[in-house]
Specification:
Oligomer: single chain
Low-confidence stretches: 1-8, 620-643
Mean pLDDT: 81
Structural class: alpha+beta
Number of helices: 20
Strand order of the largest sheet: 13-12-11-16-15-14
Distance between the termini: 152 Å
Largest sheet: 6 strands, antiparallel
Shape: elongated
Helix content: 40-55%
Length: about 650
Amino acid sequence: MSRPDRTILSEWILVIEDDPDSRDAIRLVLEQAGYLVEAAASGRAGLAAFSTRPWSLVVLDLRLPDLSGVEVLRAIKVASPATAVIMVTGHGSLASAVEAVNEAVFAYLEKPISPDQLLSAIARALARRGVEEHRRQLAAIVDGSADAIIGQTLDGTIVSWNPAAERLYGYAAHEVIGRSVSLLVPGELPDELAQILARLRRGERIEHYETVRVRSDGSRVDVSLTVSPIRDAAGAVIGASAITRDITRRKRAEATSRALTRVSHELVGSLDLEQVSARVVSAVLDVVRVRRAALHRRDATTGVLTCVAIAGAADVPNWIGRTLAPGEGLAGLAVSLGRPVWSPDLLAAREINIPDWLSDRLTADGLRAGVGLPLMARGETLGALTLIDEPGRVFAPDELEILAAFADQAALAMRIAGLFDEVRQQRDFLRSVAENSADGIVTTDVRGRITYVSPGAVRMFGRPADEVVGQRVASYYKGGAAEAWSVARRLRQDGEVRNYETALLAKDGAWVPISASVSLLRDGQGRVVGTVGVIRDLTDREAAEAARREASELRAVTLLAGGVAHEVNNPLAVIVGQLELLALGRALDSRAATRIERALTAAKEIKNIASRLTRIGRIQTTVPDKFLPPILDIRRSAGDAVD
């Protein structure tokens, strides 16, 4: 006979034998076979040793000096019912054998016992113990499984029913064992069971078969079945094991996901707040069948709810614009509580404050049941969604879950549309500022290519926007690429450049003097995406400065001319006077008279020159007076000098 492999055995065997020779012989055989062995010479010593560790098997002599082998056997079975016991005796009798067997002894061996006989009995006992342990483990797994596990014959008769099956179907085991599994099959599926049993008889395994079953209370449950054939030792199919998993929540989640996906696609189809509101009430009618759906938008300051969209059975013009005070109506209560609220009879619910006008409309329309859901996005309450139906309508928990998920989607869509509306208003405002500004506004990307040119910049440089957009801004700097790089370097260092004066190239080839303030453009994450520059035309300022320089120069000339005229006129008057006295004082020869006459003529010419100098104060500047402060008024300055 083959011996067990010593390297793999870790089985402990207790030998209780009072005869030393038999005890030593049994111990030697077992140790040579690779077992771990302890031995005891009496019943009490054996029981004491048995309490020290878990034992795989006990070899027990029927006759012991202190206790009988049957007494020791009973004590062992009380302490450990699963431990196998092999009874040996040299004084066997039919009565003792029957008693030992009745006490659940595994084998009854009469001495002398051959090693092969002993080892064979031990091997069988340990093998059966393994099978029983495996069976107990399987039973524990079946009983502890969250899935319903049902054993059945090939004709569909239920033979086993675990606790999970009781929880799933509502039947206790004693209520269904012996009955047909058709008890769980809905009437609309009459051929399903026969088809499953036919496949089982052919030895087929049925995996993840999704269907519907009926509970004890008549309600339906979505399940996934895995049915496996059970075979006997010869391989013949003798029955089946059906594992049933409740997939109701998964099915509900899938239905909700499909509905919300469809709704999400519809809602994101527009960023217009009014259109989104209208789509919300239309879409919710498809998700949950009700008679009417209304959306109320909340005023962030007053908390007043205003009906902005309605669908279903409603006189739309008479509803749009209707308001509810904070906490008023089903919508107001849902907003104040921050959670869904529903009632099978709104007019009878004391906790819901229904205003008279709303009560009259609900009564006239024959609608009494309803649910209200707050529309909340990122902690902000945007409004409420109300669904109204006929009296007695009950909103099941799964419907409320779907509606809550829908409300979240709707609130998010409204939030996005609201933000888009705010951005659009800001964009329109900034566009109005840019298009009506006398200054030019130019933006570029990070590579220095122009992305936007305002009307002011178009007027300033005479270049249409489509001619400029996409061009490098460096091509318009008077200093070219070097100047553009210099500006870019200052931007990187300081983040902005203020009042930078330069000249940019106009359409006609002229250089337009400008003052520019340039800063970096950043996106929502703070990344630099380009630059924006505000450009002011300095042409008028330079003209004014030229006028001031001209006026200053003319004033200097005026002062000089006035001073010269004054200085010349005084001595000239003396000279003219003396010449005239000489001409009148005595008779002069012709030569002297001629000389005096020539001197008087020259003096008069000098006087005319001085007179013309005084007229410089009356010169009119060609520069408009609006550029000249009073101190630069040439006429006034020149007049003061001459006087």
